[in-house]
């Protein structure tokens, strides 16, 4: 047993941290107000930050850190997954502009299941940070039940013609390509009638309509596909095998928990509490506040261990499936718990949204209280994760 | 025993619900969240016409002389639609304080204004570093000929930006650092030296920071006796906490109803999501929370209404209802899924409002401490 990192891993961690300190403005972690575990506070509040983020991503790609755990032949650095995890942890700890859907969800799925042509078409461009993707899974009538999608893709000559509607499409307005599932066999079994495609946002017939979330941020969209023509080679892997690929893509998605963000916010919270007085006494000496914070500390520790476990499994050449669900469930429920505790500790002060002298931690409490709602819903709800753990994990009967 | 409302009370509730359903739709809440005053004058005028602002004010001051329970029924109906406006701060905080502590002259001067909707009141209590405990209040009130001079800062003053009068707790005896040095004042908000900065909140209510810089208040505006604020305030806090519970009961009832309806209609995997046991258990937990909140609130409200000692019941009501509301509105989001995360959908209005009520006049922990004290611990 060894709960520590190897010398090589420690050196890598230090290199990542050094890079982050050098390439991100020192006040970035303060300005970036992402709530740990949330899916709705991804905004770049101003132009300057958006520019900084773009520049930062470019430098990451230059360093080859966009795809560090990919094989070298595909532009990666062939680092271990533990190192990938170390990288993710430090990145999210600094609230760095995240490495996206293309690199962490689409890319690994293509590497695993894509045709040689798929790999040639997409992998270099993803590795070079030339393109970003958005996830075109959910539809108005297909959320938890993704096999129930209605969007269709019909082969006409050398092209597929796509019709349908997607919803809750995070960053569709900022990305270049949809990573899309559509029905390709209207009569097939619900798990054998869906295929995965990459669709250019600029294709005629794609309409993106913004949706504002409850935090007040434009993070997601509704997207309409009206006779959108896609080259047949943009089909990923085999036709009608999309549902199977999707399950793996979701396992990859559920690894992206921004683990360091929890520790970062928690440290800020503890520091703040140390300095705050309540009714003439130090807030940090209040028994119930201490218990609440200590409980969070324990939960963060557990979440970290679940996080390292998934990396370990990947290093053994397996896709963490049940482990991904455990990690996703634990961190997103923690996202809610952390928001609740923060609100409770600040009492009446928790209500303030306007940044003022009396507003604790730049208004992160109410922001988190709103965004944490999305955590236990997006990327598969808590109920669905629990079902996966019970059935796929424990083999409990489904009926 | 009869745990139900009387026939008259049911009629009052029904008519309030019908009126608010029509006049206070969710679109209005959205419109008002960025409005400078925070509520539409028309709705306020209509509420005045219905006699609501005078619900507990005796006839002779222009009210309709109803009971505290009647007040709670109206608040519950308002909670059901997240009704915006200064009803709570004026009628509950202003009205009840004047009724319990005002002199005949003060009552005659201010209560008719509350009843006919002309005057807006609010309470200025919390100060920097204070959560709920009034004994630590620092604002000073020093005597200078016929006036008191107030200096200090108040926080989270609801509707402070539009109020005509602030009921303000200040320290009249600087040597006594306990509750015994505190006095209640009625401060004209237009007085020189009052500076108000409204702040945006999670619950879309208006909370203001108010700085008092040598604000002169005539002696005749002392409410109750000098050094006697705490007795009046304890009573007010009890009544205000239960009134908040009434509002919460309405708020979570709507969130619950919406959710159960949604669980019956929304289909995934070819069946209503409400047919999944995980969702059923969530819904069942909500039933316990909502029904528990209603009964414990009514019990406390009834006791207050009857003039019985209600400290324990009030503390229990606010402790349970605060936590229950958070659980219910949070589950409402969970069961609705992603749609509830869209601003245009209504669930978050209730989630926000519930959170605002939860921290008002003591959160669960504060009231559980009171319950523990009642147990003789
Ligand atoms: C902020 C945010 C960002 C998102 N971004 C994207 C995106 O970029 N791309 C994308 O495709 N999707 C995205 N989603 C959608 C997300 O994947 C879905 O919300 C999720 O899969 C749940 O679907 P639903 O919202 O339709 O809820 P539903 O499936 O309708 O579920 C409603 C409720 O029923 C429960 N339920 C459903 N089925 C079962 C069952 N079998 N057993 C027990 N309980 C059940 C659920 O747990 C939930 O509580 C996003 C969602 C959010 C909130």
Q: Quick one: how many beta strands of chain B?
A: 10
Please identify the oligomeric state.
heterodimer
Annotated CATH topology of the largest domain in chain A: Butyryl-CoA Dehydrogenase, subunit A, domain 3
What is the number of helices of chain A? 12
Q: CATH architecture of the largest domain in chain A, please?
A: Up-down Bundle
Series of H and E elements of chain A = HHHHHHEEEEEEEEHHEEHHHH
CATH topology of the largest domain in chain B: Butyryl-CoA Dehydrogenase, subunit A, domain 3
Largest sheet of chain B: 4 strands, mixed
Mean pLDDT reading of chain A:
94
Distance between the termini of chain A: 39 Å
What's the SSE pattern of chain B?
HHHHHHEEEEEEEEHEEHHHH
Biggest sheet character of chain A = 4 strands, mixed
The CATH superfamily of the largest domain in chain B is identified as Butyryl-CoA Dehydrogenase, subunit A, domain 3
Classified by CATH, the class of the largest domain in chain B is Mainly Alpha
* SS-based class of chain A: alpha+beta
Task: Explain what you see.
The complex is a heterodimer of chains A (399) and B (377). Chain A is of the alpha+beta class and 399 residues long. Chain A has 3 domains: 7-127, Butyryl-Coa Dehydrogenase, subunit A, domain 1 (Orthogonal Bundle); 133-239, Beta Barrel (Butyryl-CoA Dehydrogenase, subunit A, domain 2); 252-393, Butyryl-CoA Dehydrogenase, subunit A, domain 3, CATH 1.20.140.10. Helices cover 46% and strands 14% of the residues of chain A. A 4-stranded mixed β-sheet of chain A has the order 1-4-5-8. In chain A, strand 2 and strand 3 (159-167) form a beta hairpin. Chain A is globular. Chain B is globular, with a radius of gyration of 21 Å. In chain B, strand 6 and strand 7 (207-218) form a beta hairpin. Chain B folds into 3 domains: 7-118, Orthogonal Bundle (Butyryl-Coa Dehydrogenase, subunit A, domain 1), CATH 1.10.540; 122-228, Butyryl-CoA Dehydrogenase, subunit A, domain 2, CATH 2.40.110; 230-374, Butyryl-CoA Dehydrogenase, subunit A, domain 3 (Up-down Bundle). In chain B, the strands form 3 sheets. A 4-stranded mixed β-sheet of chain B has the order 1-4-5-8, with helices on one face. In chain B, strands 2-3-7-6 form a 4-stranded antiparallel β-sheet, with no helix packed on it. Chain B contains 11 helices and 10 strands. Helix content of chain B is 50%, strand content 16%. Chains A and B meet through strand 9, helix 10, helix 11 and helix 12 of A and strand 9, helix 9 and helix 10 of B. The complex binds flavin-adenine dinucleotide (FAD).
């Amino acid at each position: 047993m060894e709960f520590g990192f190897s010398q090589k891993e420690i050196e890598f961690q230090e290199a990542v941290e050094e890079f982050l300190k050098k390439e991100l403005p020192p006040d970035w972690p303060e300005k970036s107000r992402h709530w740990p575990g949330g899916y709705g506070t991804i905004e770049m509040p101003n132009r300057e930050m958006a520019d900084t983020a773009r520049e930062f991503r470019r430098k990451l790609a230059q360093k080859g850190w966009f795809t560090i755990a990919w094989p070298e032949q595909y532009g990666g650095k062939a680092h271990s997954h533990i190192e990938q995890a170390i990288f993710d942890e430090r990145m999210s700890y600094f609230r760095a502009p995240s490495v996206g859907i293309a690199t962490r969800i689409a890319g690994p799925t293509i590497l695993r299941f894509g045709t040689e042509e798929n790999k040639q078409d997409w992998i270099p461009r993803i590795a070079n940070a030339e393109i970003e993707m958005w996830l075109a899974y959910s539809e108005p009538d297909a959320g938890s039940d993704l096999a129930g999608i209605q969007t269709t893709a019909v082969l006409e000559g050398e092209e597929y013609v796509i019709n349908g509607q997607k919803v809750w499409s995070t960053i569709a307005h900022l990305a270049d390509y949809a990573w899309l599932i559509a029905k390709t066999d209207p009569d097939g079994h619900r798990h054998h009638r869906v295929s995965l495609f990459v669709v250019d946002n600029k294709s005629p017939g794609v309409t993106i309509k913004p949706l504002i979330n409850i935090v007040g941020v434009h993070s997601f969209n509704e997207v309409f596909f009206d006779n959108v023509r896609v080259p047949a080679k943009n089909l990923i892997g085999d036709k009608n095998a999309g549902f199977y690929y999707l399950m793996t893509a979701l396992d990859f998605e559920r690894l992206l928990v921004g683990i360091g963000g929890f520790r970062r916010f928690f440290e800020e919270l503890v520091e703040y509490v140390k300095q705050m007085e309540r009714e003439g006494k130090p807030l940090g000496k209040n028994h119930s506040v201490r218990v609440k914070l200590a409980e969070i500390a324990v939960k963060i520790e557990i979440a970290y261990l679940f996080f390292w476990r998934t990396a370990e499994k990947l290093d053994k050449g397996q896709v963490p499936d049940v482990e991904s669900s455990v990690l996703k469930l634990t961190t997103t429920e923690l996202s809610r718990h952390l928001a609740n505790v923060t609100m409770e500790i600040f009492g009446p002060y928790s209500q303030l949204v306007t940044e003022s002298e009396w507003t604790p931690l730049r208004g992160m409490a109410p922001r988190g209280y709103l965004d944490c709602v999305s955590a236990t819903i997006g990327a598969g709800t808590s109920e669905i994760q629990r079902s996966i753990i019970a059935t796929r994990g424990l083999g409990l009967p489904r009926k | 025993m009869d745990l139900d409302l009387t026939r008259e009370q049911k009629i009052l509730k029904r008519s309030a619900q019908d009126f608010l359903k029509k006049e206070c739709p969710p679109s209005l809440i959205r419109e008002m969240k960025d409005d400078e005053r925070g509520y539409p004058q028309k709705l306020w005028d209509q509420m005045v016409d219905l006699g609501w602002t005078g619900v507990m004010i005796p006839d002779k001051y222009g009210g309709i002389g109803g009971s505290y329970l009647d007040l709670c029924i109206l608040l519950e109906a308002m909670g059901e639609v997240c009704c915006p406006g200064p009803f709570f701060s004026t009628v509950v905080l202003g009205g009840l304080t004047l009724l319990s502590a005002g002199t005949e002259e003060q009552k005659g001067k201010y209560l008719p204004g509350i009843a006919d909707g002309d005057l807006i009141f609010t309470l200025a209590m919390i100060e920097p570093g204070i959560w709920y405990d009034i004994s630590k209040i620092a604002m000073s009130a020093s005597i200078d000929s016929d006036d008191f001079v107030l200096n200090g800062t108040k926080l989270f003053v609801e509707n402070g930006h539009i109020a005509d009068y602030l009921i303000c707790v200040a320290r009249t005896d600087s040597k006594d650092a306990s509750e015994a040095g505190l006095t209640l004042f009625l401060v004209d908000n237009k007085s020189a030296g009052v500076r108000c900065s409204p702040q945006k909140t999670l619950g879309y209510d208006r909370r203001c920071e108010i700085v008092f810089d040598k604000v002169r208040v005539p002696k005749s505006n002392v409410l109750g006796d000098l050094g006697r604020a705490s007795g009046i305030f304890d009573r007010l806090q009890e009544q205000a906490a239960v009134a908040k519970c009434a509002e919460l009961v309405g708020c979570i009832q709507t969130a619950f109803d919406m959710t159960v309806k949604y669980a019956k209609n929304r289909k995934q995997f070819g069946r209503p999501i409400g047919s999944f046991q995980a969702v059923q258990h969530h819904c069942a937990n909500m039933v316990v929370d909502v029904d528990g909140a209603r009964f414990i609130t009514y019990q406390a409200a009834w006791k207050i209404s009857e003039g019985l000692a209600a400290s324990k019941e009030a503390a229990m009501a606010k402790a349970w209802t605060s936590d229950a509301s958070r659980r219910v509105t949070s589950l409402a989001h969970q069961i609705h899924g992603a749609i509830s995360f869209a601003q245009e959908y209504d669930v978050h209005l209730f989630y926000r409002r519930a959170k605002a009520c939860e921290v008002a006049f003591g959160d669960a922990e504060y009231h559980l401490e009171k319950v523990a004290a009642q147990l003789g611990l």
